[in-house]
Amino acid sequence: MSGAKLRLPLRALIAALAAVLLISGCSSSSERPRDEPAEAVAKVSFQPGTGAKEVSPTARIGASVQRGAFDSIELRNPDGEAVEGQLAADGKSWRATEALGYGKTYSWSGRATGEDGKPVEVRGSFRTVEPDRTIHATINPTDDAVVGVAMPISIKFDEPVEDRAAVQRALHVRADAPVEGSWAWLNDRQVDYRPKEYWPARTHVTVEADLHGLALGGGAYGQADLSTGFDIGRSQIVKGDVRTHRMVVVRDGEQVASYAASYGKEDDPGRNTPNGTYMIMAKHPVEIMDNPEYHYRNVRKTWAARFSNHGEFIHENQDNAAALGAVNNTHGCINLSAADAKAYFDSALIGDPVEITGSAASMPPRFDVYDWLLTWDQWQGKSAL
């Protein structure tokens, strides 16, 4: 009897322990982790990526959101000024509409809401390139100018340009009449555009030079964009055959004047009026002329139209009246009477062509404006593309 009494409590104890273990095991397997918030479905991306450096100021700058739309978005410069931009109609993308500055950090801010109704903050930044130096450029003709049919477009830089091909790719010329033309580098600081033939008369021309943000080589970048819009006037061409002692003016295909003239002295190479196609570069009612080699200084002449930086003008020389129409005895200029010089001066535009023929010498293409002294093949050979 005593043995049976000892076994009964043991069975009860084992059963109790088993129950405890069963309860403990069931409790452990049924416990769930605390719920975490589901991630918002909207995803914002940037161009360039946030944290980007050495970004071109003219690179495509924008932001977009997937599975959502922007409630607000801004890009600000270090001074807190907002960059101009445009939000798409569907609110899913934004792009900058202005060029950025050099060496600046730009920061994004705003908010987007996803398809799940959950907000996403817009945050990020990038930095634009810091040039070693910037190169300034100018363009001619200037806005609203009216010029002659031989006028080139000229862009001049204040430092030499290494990547000339990059510059040419950033230059755009549009004319409202069909024109075949080309850019040519006259030196490492100047690129000119001229048509194969003279510009069509009464043509409007626009030029855009997208230089801001453009890498010019050697760590240099373009300082600013340039643009101009100008008009080609009537066609007026000076025909100067030195053998005739006349200066003929042809306007819109018709001869309108034939002036008695004296050209450069033929038997002195230093005094020839050289063959070549030039253009009127400048006009001055009074010009003071010097040529120490030929022993004259401070000579005052009127109605002077310069057509070469070598020193040639069309101008009045009443003191040489006896030679006009008869003898070539000047120092290279085209002498006219006072009345004829004024008549021509008043009719001339900057950029009008002057065609000299019949001379004993030709002008070498090395002075400041020699665009029309080159053949078309020679001109195209100076392109960087």
Automatic annotation (TrEMBL):
<keyword id="KW-0961">Cell wall biogenesis/degradation</keyword>
<protein>
    <submittedName>
        <fullName>Ig-like domain-containing protein</fullName>
    </submittedName>
</protein>
<dbReference type="InterPro" id="IPR005490">
    <property type="entry name" value="LD_TPept_cat_dom"/>
</dbReference>
<keyword id="KW-0732">Signal</keyword>
<feature type="active site" description="Nucleophile">
    <location>
        <position position="333"/>
    </location>
</feature>
<keyword id="KW-0133">Cell shape</keyword>
<keyword id="KW-0573">Peptidoglycan synthesis</keyword>
<feature type="domain" description="L,D-TPase catalytic">
    <location>
        <begin position="236"/>
        <end position="357"/>
    </location>
</feature>
<dbReference type="Pfam" id="PF17964">
    <property type="entry name" value="Big_10"/>
</dbReference>
<keyword id="KW-0808">Transferase</keyword>
<feature type="signal peptide">
    <location>
        <begin position="1"/>
        <end position="29"/>
    </location>
</feature>
<dbReference type="InterPro" id="IPR041280">
    <property type="entry name" value="Big_10"/>
</dbReference>
<dbReference type="InterPro" id="IPR038063">
    <property type="entry name" value="Transpep_catalytic_dom"/>
</dbReference>
<feature type="active site" description="Proton donor/acceptor">
    <location>
        <position position="315"/>
    </location>
</feature>
<keyword id="KW-0012">Acyltransferase</keyword>
<dbReference type="Pfam" id="PF03734">
    <property type="entry name" value="YkuD"/>
</dbReference>
<dbReference type="InterPro" id="IPR050979">
    <property type="entry name" value="LD-transpeptidase"/>
</dbReference>
<comment type="pathway">
    <text>Cell wall biogenesis; peptidoglycan biosynthesis.</text>
</comment>
